[in-house]
Request: fold
Amino acid sequence: MSTSTLTAQDGLSSLTAPPPTPTFRHQQLRCATTRESGAVLDEPRREVRYGLLKVFFSVFTGLSIGAWVSQKMAAFLEENELFVPEDDDDDDDD
Reply:
């Protein structure tokens, strides 16, 4: 047997063969924006659940966190004597 020629008996011919072509099944895809006739669907309804309650909760949470942060910052500034409010009674100038 010659080493310069390869035969099917050597088992190497399968390495050069093209890969098998995959077979696909025909699937019908549904488009979510058009009807079967091709007409465009109406815009979907938008539901607003608890809209005012969400706004109230967000505003209340933001104000509460802001008040807490400002209180802690004022306490920090007073503790380090960076800002000490003065008790000026300007109302007694009568």
